[in-house]
């Protein structure tokens, strides 16, 4: 559901083939940003994200699912707003 929320605005803006190429670039950029944030957290704050992920099982499962559901809904709403903006600007 989250991947579809990210993909839809790109598909509407660039079309099928160019949209896929743009998505590869976006996922690559997200991977680089994730690595930079992880290394930055270790260097600046001295917090290892690997140890933080090890502590996740202590979180209640219902809390975990609720957090991810809220994040997914926010991403879908943002995707809807961006897609609506793209469609309003598009000339047919």
Describe the protein.
The model has no long low-confidence stretch (mean pLDDT 87). Helix 1 crosses helix 2 and helix 1 runs parallel beside helix 4. The two termini are 28 Å apart. By secondary structure, this protein is an all-alpha fold.
Secondary structure layout plus pairing:
Layout: H1 2-14, H2 16-45, H3 49-54, H4 61-89
Give structural attributes.
single chain, 92 residues, mainly alpha, 4 helices
Query: How much is the average pLDDT?
Result: 87
Into which percentage range does the β-strand content fall? under 5%
* Through-space gap between termini: 28 Å
Residue runs with pLDDT of under 50 for 5 or more positions? none
How many structural domains does the protein architecture include?
Answer: 1
Structural class, from secondary structure content? mainly alpha
Q: What overall form do the CA principal axes indicate?
A: extended
Rg for CA atoms: 17 Å
Major sheet summary line: none
Number of helical elements:
4
Would you list the SSEs in sequence order as H and E?
HHHH
Residue share in helices? over 70%
Overall strand count: 0
